[in-house]
Amino acid sequence: MALCLSASKSIAFNIRCSNSTSDSLPSSSVFKSLKIPRFWPWQKVKMGPLTVSPMGFGTWAWGNQLLWGYQDSMDSELQQTFNLAVENGINLFDTADSYGTGKLNGQSEKLLGKFIRQFPGHIALFLFLIKRDKQVKNDIVIATKFAAYPWRLTPGQFVNACKSSLDRMQIEQIGIGQLHWSTANYAPLQERALWDGLVAMYDKGLVRAVGVSNYGPKQLLKIHKYLDDRGVPLRSAQVLSLLPTLLLRMQLPFFNRVWDALLFKSVKNRICITFG
User: Fold this and answer.
1) What distance in Å separates the CA atoms of residue 5 and residue 234, rounded to the nearest whole number?
2) Residue 141 domain-assigned?
3) What is the 3-state secondary structure (H, E, C) of 15-83?
4) Where is pLDDT greater, at 255 or 75?
5) Collapsed DSSP state (helix, strand, coil) of residue 6
6) What digits encode the pLDDT tens for the residues 217-227?
7) Is the pLDDT of residue 21 over 90?
8) Residues in domain NADP-dependent oxidoreductase (predicted)?
9) Which of 244, 242, 149 is nearest to 197 (CA)?
10) Rounded to 5 degrees, what are φ and ψ at 263?
11) Could you give the CA distance from residue 175 to residue 168 in angstroms, rounded to a whole number?
12) Is 88 helix (H, G, I), strand (E, B) or coil?
C-alpha cells in the first residue's frame, strides 16, 4: 500500500490502516493528527519531474531464492501480477541492482524490464486502445537502487552501475536512481564518491531523479545540501518503517525543512508515502 500526502510547513502524522480509525491509536502516537486522503490507484501525484501512482509496487522477492524461494517457474505468475497492477493504474515500481541471489543477482531488474516489454494491456481486445497502452508503458516509473559495494570506489564506477541497470532492464532512462545505503560509518570517502556518481548520472540524463535509501536524518541533511549545491534535487528517501515511531520523529524536522517531494518505503509494511 502507498499513501500520498501533501507537504506543508508543519507535518504531523496519524496513520489509519485497513478499516481502523484514528480513534484506535494511542493519544501519544506520532501519527495522531494525520488524515489519510482517499486515492484510487489510477490517480497520480507529482514527485518532482515524475508523475506516480499513490501505490507503489516492490520487487525485492523477484529472483531471491534465499528469502522468498523464487523459481523461474514463477515468472508467468509474476508477469500476470505485474499486468494486473499496471492495468489498475500502478506505475511506480521499486527494484535494485542487488535484488536476486547468487547467479540471479540483478534478476529483479531483468524481470521488471521484461514484464514492461511484454505488457499486453488491452491491445488484443480493443484495437482503439493501442495508443493508450503504449502511453501506459511510457508512463511506468522505475525506482532502482545501486548497491554501495566496496569495489565501487569512484563516481565513474557508480555511473557504470547505472548503465548496467539500464542494460538489464533494456530501457533508456531510469525514473529514480538511488544510493542503496550509506557508507558513512565505515567508508566515508567512498560515500562522497558515490554522491558524485549520483550527480553524474543525473547530469548525463541516465536518471530523471535521484534519491537515497537507508539514510538517517543527519546524513539526509548532508546529502541534500551536497546535491543541492550542485543543482541536483534529492527526490526520494527510502525505507522507513511506520511501526517503530522513533525514527519518524527524528526525521520529521528534516522533512518539514527541506523536502518538496519525498518518498518513503517500509520494508516490513511495504508502505510508500510520497510528499509533493
Assistant:
1) 18
2) yes
3) CCCCCCCHHHCCCCCCCCCCCCCCCCCCCCEEECCEEECCCEEECCCCCCHHHHCCCHHHHHHHHHHHH
4) 75
5) coil
6) 788 889 999 99
7) no
8) 54-228
9) 149
10) -120, 125
11) 15
12) coil
On whether residue 214 sits in a domain, the answer given is yes
- State the Cα–Cα distance between residues 62 and 100, nearest whole angstrom: 7
Residue type, 177: G
CATH number where 154 lies:
3.20.20.100
Cα–Cα distance measured from residue 152 to residue 167, given in angstroms and rounded to the nearest whole number? 18
For the whole model, what pTM was predicted?
0.74
Q: Is residue 164 part of a domain?
A: yes
- The yes-or-no answer on residue 99 being catalytic is yes
From the CB of residue 197, how many other CB atoms can be counted at a distance below 10 Å?
A: 25
70, 99, 202, 215: the catalytic one is 99
Residues 102, 246: Cα–Cα separation, whole Å: 35
Domain count, the chain: 1
All three cell numbers of 67: 528469502
Instruction: Among 9-13, 17-21, 208-212, 229-233, name the one with the lowest average pLDDT.
Output: 9-13
Whats the size of the chain, residue-wise? 276
| Residue 220 falls inside a structural domain | yes
Mean pLDDT for 200-212 is 96
Angle between helices 155-169 and 188-203 (to 10 degrees): 50
Non-local (6+) Cβ contacts of 177 within 8 A are: 144, 146, 162, 198, 201, 202, 206, 207, 209, 210, 211
Whole-number average pLDDT of the chain: 76
**Which structural domain, as residue segments, surrounds residue 218?**
41-275
